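Problem: given the chain below (453 residues), write out its structure.
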Amino acid sequence: MADTRSPIQVIGGGLAGTEAAWQIARAGLPVVLHEMRPQKTSPAHHTEHLAELVCSNSFGAMASDRASGLLHHELRQLGSVVIAKADEHAVSAGGALAVDRAIFSQNLTQTLAQHPLIELRRDEVSRIPTEGVVVLATGPLTSPALSEDLSRFTGMEYMSFFDAASPIVVGDSINRDIAFLASRYDRGEAAYLNCPMDKAQYLAFWTALCQAEQAELKDFELETAKFFEGCLPIEEMARRGEDTLRYGPLKPVGIFDARHGDFKDPANREKRPYAVVQLRQEDRAGQLWNMVGFQTNLRWGEQKRVFQMIPGLEETEFVRMGVMHRNTFLNAPQLLETTLQFKQRSTLLAAGQIIGTEGYTAAVAGGWLAGTNAARLARNLAPITLPPVTMGGALFDFISTASPKHFQPMPPNFGIMPELEQRIRVKQERYGAYRDRALASLSAWMNAERSAA
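Solution.
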């Protein structure tokens, strides 16, 4: 029988808030999910749907011996609704879990709106509710009013960095006589369109990119910006040196046009590209393609001028230009427990990028933990922490125990995992050992939790 007490409040309908609300309802408790869109828009969102993916349609590598892939596997075991929908609406993306972002967010919105214990309210919450259990999942674009109230509550200002999104282009406008489908080293399914450049083309593009005019950052000053390395604007990367892009998003190694023959044939060495721009499929039908690694803050006219210098994209049609916005986050080591409860108020929890985790999958994991613990607190049960040897457990342990003075957003990675009992020198074997330990520990922990329930 469903619990009839006052509903838990979840503020923010992004990935973390969506997951948190679902886990609360899954526990049999009523929940109100507040989302300010479309009543109030944000600088980065384009729709009113829950769990809208802003920067990319990719949740990262799927393989379980990769950090993001391991977190995917953990969340599947834990019953994440967001990862389940990502699996359901996946599109071809080589070794990455990428989704048809429009259908993905529409389906999640419908799923939550139809749940009898979830009330979806389209309103802006300007102050943190003072009563009951609350999950704060407003993300990096928290409204100014709520930001001010959060600053008053914590007694400190937000920390911030700057984030950017890549352009999306129409598939039919890409010149397929130049662009070709291929995977790196010809491994797995050919899921990326590749636009090859010779040296002269690359240098002309690089020069134009370095000289292109950036958009003004309006309500915040560029000189105060801190860029998160995992989402650095491409023009910022280019200014670091002539070859920076060739060792980053335009890396040509292992990519070869099969129309030229066997890439392993030494006779074809001179046909290998000097640099390659990759495009990843955005939707299941292949009508939209994302320019991989091309997050940018260039003016829209400059984006079109410079990006159409790329071979194969000379006549391309842009359906979304790249954008840049400020991401704000809390100093989690000072403010949060590993359970994602605020230290100064145990019935207030936080999740998503606002807590200083980076990436879609980490936001989902935070939503799962905050939602699970919100439900437990509402039932007067002790909150839980995930096993520290899991990727999720290690991530939340890190953000709650790191040095507050130097805290910066952290994505899932094996560097934060507790060391293995025996040192393994081969990286792939070491990552496999981390995975095996994590999944075994999570299974044992889940069995113990079920037995204790």
